[in-house]
Amino acid sequence: MGDFNAMLLRHEKVGGRPVPDSILYDFQSCLLRSGMRGLERAGHIWTWHNKATQNRIACQLDRALGNSEWFRWFPNSVAEGLAAGTSDHSPIRVGLCERPTFRARPFRYNNSWYLSPGYEEVVLREMQHFRDGTAQFRMVHKLKQIKRAIRGWVKQLSRNSLADKEEELRDTQVALQSDIMNGVLAAKERSLIEEVSTMRMQEEISAAQRAKCTWLKDGDRCTKFFYDVIRTRQHRNSIPRLLNAEGRLVGDPVAIQEEAVRFYTYLYQQTDYASMFPALVTKRLVSRHGNSLLLAPVRMEEVEEIVMKANPNKAPGPDGFSSGFFKRHWGVLKAPVLAAVQEFFVEGRLLKEMNHTFLTLVPKKEGATSLADFRPIACCNFLYKIITNLMCRRMEGIMQGLVSRNQAAFIKGRSIAEHSLLAHEMVREFSKPGGMKACVKLDLRKAYDTVNRDFLCHLMLAMGFDGRWVARVRECICSPTFSVLIQGTPYGYFSRNRGLRQGDPLSPYLFTLVMEYFTCMIDIAVHCGRIVPLFRLVSPAVSHLIYADDLLVLLQPTMRGMRALSDIMEEFGRLSGLQLNREKSRVYFSSRCTLQEERAFALGVDRGELPVKYLGVPLTVNYAREQDCHSLVDFAQKRVEGWQAAGLSFGGRIELVRSVIAGIAMFWLQSIQIPSATIRKVEAICSNFIWRGGIHAISWDQLCRPREEGGVGLRPFQEVRKAACMKMAWKFIKGGSLWADWMTSRYLRRTNFWACRIDNNFSVTFKAILRCRPVLQTAIRRRMKDGSTTDLWRDPWLGSRSLLEILGEQMDREAGRGLTCSRILRDGVWRPEDYPYTAPLAAEIQLIIIDTSLTEDTWSWAGPGTGGGTGKFCFRSCYDLVRIHHAQDEEVAFIWGKGVARKM
Question: Where are the domains of the chain?
Answer without folding.
Answer: 2-95, 117-155, 162-237, 288-618, 626-699+708-721, 732-882
